[in-house]
TrEMBL record:
The gene is LOC114253604. The histidine box domains are involved in binding the catalytic metal ions. GO terms for biological process: unsaturated fatty acid biosynthetic process. InterPro entries: Acyl-CoA_DS (IPR015876), FA_desaturase_dom (IPR005804). This is Acyl-CoA Delta(11) desaturase-like.
Length: 254
């Protein structure tokens, strides 16, 4: 379940729907939607809007999880309180026409609470009980609490740790950093300095790193005809950006 949830976040709502880094055939789209619902997040629409807002106004008052407000806020606090006026105002300006024109994604937005209960809690718990014979109390504890919280907090380290600690080989002027620990926890999403400089790139990092599982899966989908139109920054583009924006001299992780 941890892997399934991770796929829904990294390959689904993040790379596919927020950044439009690649395209998939319809069955894979539904699969990734189900994977995302199993993670217990907000709706795809809300997730995409907030993340696009984060990229457009990173580390400012209009950033939903502005790291300059401290670790707790950027990690979990922003989900525990109302959004400030800057986030609400700027959020209305984010172009969401691609999501709004997709009837499948809007269906998920309308019924995301019901789908969350079904895919994140009910089905996983019943699978543990009936497929592996686990006691119902253990199944509930694992799927409804432990697994859910592990997925949530591992994902949130991208907003907190990867904006506070790490190296910056592509742009030293932003908070987003390359953080190996976060990459281990999130299947490669911790190479955040690269991602903020090249958000359109389907890869989690410049190189095919061992931890970039989402990149490997998208590559596999492409090879078997399930994914296509993969967007990728060229070596020349990467080097040009590094020279123009000024990295910290560290090397891309190999």
């Amino acid at each position: 379940m941890l892997l399934i949830c991770g796929l829904g976040i990294t390959c689904g709502v993040h790379r596919l729907w927020t950044h439009r880094s690649y395209k998939v055939i319809v069955p894979v789209k539904f699969f990734l939607m189900a994977c995302f619902c199993s993670s217990g997040q907000n709706s795809i629409y809300d997730w995409v809007r907030d993340h696009r807002l984060h990229h457009k106004f990173a580390d400012t008052d209009a950033d939903p999880h502005n790291v300059n407000r401290g670790f707790f806020f950027s990690h979990i606090g922003w989900l525990m309180m109302q959004k400030n006026e800057s986030v609400l105002t700027k959020g209305k300006l984010i172009d969401m026409s691609d999501i709004e024109s997709d009837s499948h994604l809007m269906f998920q937005h309308k019924y995301h609470n019901q789908l969350k209960i079904l895919f994140c809690f009910l089905i996983p718990t019943l699978m543990n009980i009936f497929l592996i014979g686990e006691d119902w109390k253990c199944a509930v504890a694992w799927q409804c609490f432990i697994r859910f919280l592990c997925v949530l907090h591992s994902e949130l380290t991208v907003n907190s740790l990867a904006h506070m600690y790490g190296y910056k080989p592509y742009n030293v002027n932003i908070e987003a950093s390359e953080n190996i620990l976060v990459s281990v926890l999130t299947y490669g999403e911790g190479y955040h300095n690269f991602h903020h400089v090249f958000p359109f790139d389907f890869r989690a990092a410049e190189t095919m790193d061992f931890f970039s599982l989402s990149t490997k899966i998208i590559r596999t989908f492409e090879k078997i005809g399930w994914a296509y139109d993969l967007k990728q920054a060229s070596p020349e583009m990467i080097e040009s950006a590094r020279n123009k924006l000024g990295g910290d001299g560290s090397k891309a992780h190999n």
